[in-house]
Amino acid sequence: MRPRVRPLPPEEWDDFTAAHPYNVCTTLARHPGIYPAWRHYTGALLDGTLPARDRELAILRTAHHCDSAYAWARHARRAREAGLTEQEIELVRRPDALWSVEDQLVLQVADDLYYGGDLTDATWAALCDRYDVAGRIELVMLVAHYGTMAMVLRTLRVQLEE
């Protein structure tokens, strides 16, 4: 499929975009009012308080649920950098895979939000046992953000980098 919105040409990139020339950035850069705020928000989520493993598990499960090949490809690499094995990355796609209690909680948050748009009381209680208030907010916002980004990427037909 061809992009519905072509990426901004390199001669129009700002310094950030030149340093991060990914198609998601060069496409969203076409909206100069939203792009800086999106960069800041996404950056805050990616550099937040969650352990990198938890963050990448949540993003990969959300990318899987939302059928976002772009987010999956970008974050499979980041998941490897966070210490996930190739086998673990592939197991994210399987709802019947066995995980540690900590990993299963993160995946359950993504599952609950995808299927029900809310967390069950049991998931929330487990989340309260594991994370502080900021961590709970951050994990919910992370999953919601990547669900939204999956729709944006799919609708704009943002292409994977070569």
Strand-pairing-aware structural class: mainly alpha
Question: How many distinct beta strands?
Answer: 0
Number of helices: 9
What is the radius of gyration?
Answer: 16 Å
| Number of domains as seen in the coordinates | 2
**Strand residues, percent:** under 5%
**CATH homologous superfamily label of the largest domain:** AhpD-like
- Helix content estimate: 55-70%
- Could you give the order of the helices and strands? HHHHHHHHH
Biggest sheet: strands, sense, closure?
none
The separation of the N and C termini measures 15 Å
CATH fold node name of the largest domain: AhpD-like
What is the CATH class of the largest domain?
A: Mainly Alpha
Unreliable spans: none
